[in-house]
Specification:
Creatine Amidinohydrolase; 2 domains; six-stranded mixed sheet; four-stranded mixed sheet; 17 strands; disordered N terminus
């Protein structure tokens, strides 16, 4: 009675909890407390619902991991990929205090690692039942594991990249002068699901001046002829792995100054992708893009970092930003997405997901990067 496919054993190997326990012990942390979210899913494959009732995987540095679950969630947990792990499920009833239950089972401890995305209401309840125990982020232990994608994770990201490429291939047919951003965005959201994603995470259609706001989403603005449009879209696949890709289109011939800086941007994005190889620092990938944009006089128009890691979360470590000296290693997956934004007028961004291989960077998005005039 277990819904487990072979892909889930490749993607979510049963050895991860043991690996995490070793890393927890090595870090001098007594236990990890992982509530529903990417850390829990990474270790177990269980895509548990984040709820006010406590579900928590406890990974002690010594001894066996166990999962505290509300009794009404027990069937879901037992039918999830977590059931492959031989974990003890510890159900609690509506009138029990699951926080005290966890504290009692952990016993004397100095430090616990909380899931990075644990809700504050839960972390404060843990603090109340474990007074004097230091709380740190579980990410301090799990980041090294999560940044290095396994071949199965790379395959899942490649599948996500191919799915969002299918959507970008449809975008030129959806962009027309006279349509609103929202109308185009609704069609894109449907296409994201039709391409195999389980959820639509974001749809940015930034036409004309809205393209100069990097996280503009959708508005009722009508797209005009001669306008550049920034389209940044992504979703989560049934595997749990995410897509994220940006292309900038022009509805009819763009203004001359736009065409000039778009070409600078394209070269900057290429240079940053070409800089990717093991041992190169995250900040030097950022610098490879930024240098070209600065040399062309648009340095102050590139107002964000060059990229972010991606996996079970759209934004995770490593961040491709000045000051991050972390060296790239095979399996690191991240975006390369420089942008140039002219406030009040228009903007452009080009974004691909890359995986660092033994020899360089593999792009997981492969739609054309030359300006597409529709
Ligand atoms: Zn973003
Ligand atoms: Zn994006
Ligand atoms: Zn991104």
């Amino acid at each position: 009675m277990v819904d487990v496919t072979t892909t889930s054993s490749d993607l979510y190997p049963v050895t991860r909890v043991a690996d995490a326990r070793e890393a927890t012990a090595a870090a001098g942390i007594d236990a990890l407390l992982l509530t529903p979210g990417p850390d829990l899913r990474y270790l177990t494959g269980y895509d548990a619902l984040p709820l006010e009732r406590l579900t928590c995987l406890v990974v002690p540095a010594e001894g066996e991991a166990f999962m505290v679950v509300p009794r009404l969630e027990l069937p879901a947990a037992e039918h999830s990929p977590a059931s492959r792990l031989g974990l003890e499920f510890v159900p609690w009833d509506e009138t029990d205090d699951p926080y005290s239950l966890v504290a009692r089972r952990i016993g004397p401890a100095a430090t616990v690692g909380l899931a990075d995305r644990m809700w504050a209401m839960q972390s404060l309840r843990f603090r109340a039942v474990m007074p004097g125990i230091e709380q740190v982020l579980a990410g301090s232990v799990l980041r090294e594991m999560r940044m290095r994608k396994s071949p199965a994770e790379v395959a899942a990201l490649r599948e996500a990249g191919a799915a969002i490429d299918v959507v970008h291939a449809l975008v030129p047919g959806l962009l027309k002068a006279g349509r609103t951003e929202r109308e185009v965005g609704k069609d894109i959201a449907e296409a994201i699901l039709a391409a195999g994603h389980a959820t639509v995470d974001f749809v940015i259609v930034g036409s004309g001046p809205n393209g100069a706001s990097p996280h503009h989403e959708l508005s009722d603005r009508v797209i005009q002829a001669g306008e550049p449009v920034v389209v940044d879209i992504g979703g989560q696949m049934p595997s749990g792995y995410c897509s994220d890709s940006t292309r900038t289109y022009s509805v009819g011939e763009p203004p001359a100054d736009f065409a000039a800086y778009y070409e600078v941007l394209r070269q900057a994005q290429d240079a940053a992708c070409a800089a990717v190889r093991p041992g190169v620092s995250c900040e030097s990938v950022d610098a490879a893009a930024r240098q070209i944009i600065e040399d062309a006089g648009y340095g102050d128009r590139f107002i964000h970092r060059t990229g972010h890691g991606i996996g079970l979360e759209t934004h995770e470590e490593p961040y491709i930003v000045s000051g991050n000296t972390e060296p790239l290693a095979p399996g690191f997956a991240f975006s390369v997405e420089p942008g140039i934004y002219l406030a009040g007028r228009h903007g452009a961004r080009i974004e691909d997901i890359l995986v660092c291989t033994e020899t360089g960077g593999e792009r997981l998005n492969n739609q054309p990067r030359d300006l597409v005039v529709v």
